[in-house]
Amino acid sequence: MLQTDQYNINIGPIHPSTHGGLHVEAVMDGETIVDAIVHVGYVHRAVEKIAESRTYTQFIPYASRLDYLASHLPTMGYVQTVEKMLDIHVPERAEYIRIIMGEFSRIASHILFVGSLAIDLGATTGFTYCMRDREKILDLFEMTSGQRMIASYMRFGGFAEDLPEEFIPAARNFLKNIPQMFDEYNHLLSGNEILQARLKNIGVLSAEDAINYGITGPNLRASGVDYDLRKAEPYGIYDRFAFDVPLGEKGDNYDRFMVRLQEIEQSGRIITQALDQLPEGEIRAKIPRIVKPEKGLEVYHRIESAKGELGYYIVSDGGEKPYRLHVRAPSFINLMVLPLISRGGKLQDIIANIATLDPVLGEADR
Amino acid sequence: MSLNDIVFIALAGITLLAALGVVLSRNIIHSALFLVLTFLGVAGIYFQLNAGFVGLVQIMVYAGAISVLIIFAIMLVMDVEPDQTNLFNQSTPTIMAGGYVSVLLAAGLAGAIWFTKWPLSAVQVGDQGVEKLAGMLLGPYVVSFEVAAILLLVAVFGAILLAKGVEDK
Amino acid sequence: MEHFFVNTAHALVAWLTGLGLAPGWADLILLVVQWIAVIIIVILNITVLIWLERKVSGFIQQRLGPNRLGPFGMFQTIADAIKLLTKEDIVPSQTDRMIFKTAPMVFIIISVMLYVVIPMGDGMEIVDLNVGLFYFISIGSLSTIALLMAGWGSNNKWSLLGGMRSVAQMISYEIPLAFSLLGVVMITGSLRMSDIVAAQSNIWFVVLQPIAFITYFISATAELNRGPFDMPEAEQELTSGAYTEYTGMRWALFFLAEYTNLVAVSALMATVFFGGWQGPWLPSWLWIIIKTYLILNVFFLIKWTFPRIRMDHLMSFSWKFLIPVSLANILLTGAGIEVLMRMGW
Amino acid sequence: MYGTGLLKGLGITLKHTFEREITQQYPEQMPVLPARFRGNLQLDFQDCIACEMCTKVCPNGVLSLESVRDDKTNKKKLMSYSIDFQYCMYCNFCVENCPKHCLHFDHNFELAAYDRENIKKVYQRPQELVTDLPEEIVAAEEKNQKRISVMIGALQKDAPKILGKLLEDEEKGKVLAAALASDQDKLEKIAVMMVEDIEKAKKVAGALANKAAKDHPKEGNVVA
Predict the structure, then answer these.
(1) D92 with D170, same domain?
(2) In this structure, is residue B104 part of a structural domain?
(3) Which chain A residues contact residue D96 at CB under 8 A?
(4) Nearest to A61 among D2, D89, D105 (CB)
(5) What's the structural domain count of chain B?
């Protein structure tokens, strides 16, 4: 047998397909990956430390900047955590709007996932179509809060402002177009034989490994584990909606891709129901201007974000700033499985693996 | 001096210089690339002799072969500085042996060229070279042609087996 | 209009011999003039072509494409070329300088050489070689060396991977490329381009040889390193593959050569499968331009639609599918010819 | 059949090729912005009561203001208000918390600037509102203005001497005076600084003098 040398190749931190400052040190044998070492921290902004020097309210825009691709979800997680500390009851209408905005964020994030996967595999046009559809969601966000991506719209106890009049027709219009969007994605991407060959049976993550590594979110469900916090531990008013949890079978890249595509559909269902049931009324609970939880209060709250289980752990010392804030970032934990699923694959597979794990480095590095 | 002579001298010069480059380069990749140039020069001479088909076969086969050769060179000498991959062997017995062989070869070739009577054929090859070649290969010489092909195929399989190794059951 | 270029060439030769030049020398000068004309046309054509590709890809993606410089943004490529020419020419210090610098030149020379045998109209070949088709294939295969030189000379792991990929890919795809053209050669009974065009006066070979056409199309895309087979470049994986370290005009030369190859292969496809310069009403040289550009648009559409194939799939596709299919096509063609000959055609 | 997926994909792209383009040609065609769009932060100067709610609530310290207390009415008067946009996160907290609703975002989003100084937006108290201030402040301000104009006059008359004194180095003073002779703006700025903050004036003048000495070393004023 011909003996060959191994060599290291640095994928990133500056590389077209690492979705930000991710550095993967790949040990290669020819084009085959022997091992991959993940280095994170290039986008470290000390968000948790910043939280200690800001008041509870002032941290809201920073929370949005964790997962900037689905900014309403991390904000929702943070806001709900503090509400849990203060025992605030959010008005009905605000709860429904939170669901609507959160699910729209999830759709935006998943559409971007589809697009970035397409461009990582070399299908540039798939990316532009996905961006085109995502823009429509961003338009909705801009309508409500004036910001497209990092909308700081949520507040403790509800929202800053009520929905504008034109929002509901526009949202319904978007939902109406989802089947057409899907047609396009299915024909251009998921039905494409080249793409299937690139994704099927690549980067297989068994259910057992996924649980052991603490993988959550669509990546876990792609491995066939039926675990969705919206069903398993409904927060907010998620128990009022009927929706399915799409599951994969093998846990390969194609399953991860398809699970997210189906989740877009389910999120659309949730939004439709929420829009139908949306009650009139108050948009924000009465809360003190300065938020001061009791001394010694410790709260952990988790939500199902677009990338997985996003948890906030906050300790209060009775002051107006958190004593300690920790974020359980799903992207960070999901990324750690990259070496496991990449070993033995080709160089081109590791690109697909990074893309289907769908990390957002702002959240992974914090 | 006719146009033909000028072209011949240019081609022969390129070929010889490139051949020297093959021998004298210290970097094995450079040697391989000079070898490409040598073959291209030879192909040019074939063209001049109105044997276009042979010349093109020369180009096509050697372009592929040389790139593979370069890859082997890269694979085999990767750990060394590229500038030191094709050094002369300094030991006296090797130089002696090499010199002896090359003198013998040169003498043999010179003798052969000198004593052979080169017959001048009145037949113009013209444009029909390819057809004639095809007729010969698939007519009188079909058996030897096929045998050679099978031999090459076996060699390819052997090479793949050697490179990949047989998995133990 | 029809014989404008041919007549010009004849007039030039007549004028040169009238000056007292030997016929051989006059032909040589004509050859040089034709050669230079081809190079100029190719390069001018490519500025249009790059603009066209950007425009078409823009339309595919529901964008407008370049539209700032000149009418419909037509001068964008020229502006880009000027920018690239004035850019600093960086040669990284650890490169193999000789190889690094010559690689783009080798590439562009090889791709311009392809045009020698393409009939660009009725009687408008530079040289009507008796082995024209074979010339095209074998010269085209030389561009492997250029990419390998770029990959090795850059002394960069990404580049080397790109170079290695290009060798593996191009050597594998040369075989189906040649075999698919063999069917046409068997019907025509000649490797001469003018004979191939003449044989299509009644029916195009794309009708007679559909399998050969498809295999040729696929393997030509791979030979050209175009999407979805753009392994050596592979922006998303290899950053830019063999071209990673190149800047300014050297980098532009690579692209120029790639597009030159693209036009040459499309023109060959038009010649071999779509009746060449033959067509009603319009002058012959206009017909080949029209056909070539239509084929180019198909190449664009494919590149901008499909994801990139994985390297090992690419190789097995060639060895396990394309080569057997093209061999079967040869067998089929032979049997067909034999049957037709028995029937007394 | 294998390959139909590929053909369908080609069909999609081919269909879109002949559809209308969706991109906006931005500088010519401005985007239609929703009512709540957060562009440039604006302040209605008259309405501000300098309560500092906005500066307290801002997560990044973008906002800062200067105010004076009117002893008679015991109310604060805003002197200047500055917005440092380079740190702004557009979270809207300041707008929401303003009790007088005098902050709002307008729809101008073209905020890019070539240097950081130009990103910062400073509102000075407008001239017509100066009379609104308590008397002693108005008087102090007038006095200040007078001192500045005197200083400018002095500088124009005998720059080398005054600058030399400022820099405690006559040679440097000469160099600087020569450099500033053609630049009235800078001269006036230094004059203002000398009146308001002599330490800063020293620093700035020193830096300018060094620069001038470097730029024109041949004019016989080489600084040792």
Answers:
(1) no
(2) no
(3) 160
(4) D89
(5) 2
Task: Provide the number of structural domains found in chain D.
Answer: 2
CATH code linked to domain A33-365: 1.10.645.10
CB interface of B with C, residues 65-124, below 8 Å: 66-68, 70-71, 74, 82
Q: Which of B39, B63, B89 is at the close of a domain?
A: B89
CATH number of the domain where residue D63 is located: 3.30.70.3270
Contact A2 B165 (CB under 8 A): yes
The amino acid at residue C255 is F
CA pseudo-torsion sign D106, D108, D110, D116: negative
Question: Cα(B25)–Cα(D23) distance, rounded to whole angstroms?
Answer: 57
ipTM for this prediction: 0.75
Note whether A364 and A40 are within 8 A (CB). Answer: yes
Q: What is the pLDDT along chain B (169 residues), one digit of tens a residue?
A: 677 788 889 889 999 998 888 888 877 778 888 888 888 888 888 888 877 788 888 888 876 677 676 666 666 665 666 666 666 667 788 888 888 998 999 999 999 988 888 777 766 656 666 777 778 888 888 899 889 989 988 988 887 777 666 665 5
Whose CA is closest to A108, among A33, A46, A178, A163? A178
Which residues numbered 117-176 in A keep a CB inside 8 Å of some CB on C? Answer: 118-126, 128-129, 132
The CA-atom distances, in angstroms, between C142 and each of A238, B30, B40, B69, C181 are: 64, 16, 10, 14, 18
- What size, in residues, is chain A? 366
Residues of A in contact with D2 (CB under 8 A): 193
Q: Based on the fold, state whether residues C193 and C101 are members of the same structural domain.
A: yes
> Is B168 near chain A, with CB under 8 Å?
no
D3 Cβ under 8 Å from any chain A Cβ: yes
Do C305 and D10 lie within an 8 Å CB cutoff?
Answer: yes
Q: Do D59 and A59 touch (CB under 8 A)?
A: yes
Structural tokens at position C287: 């017909």
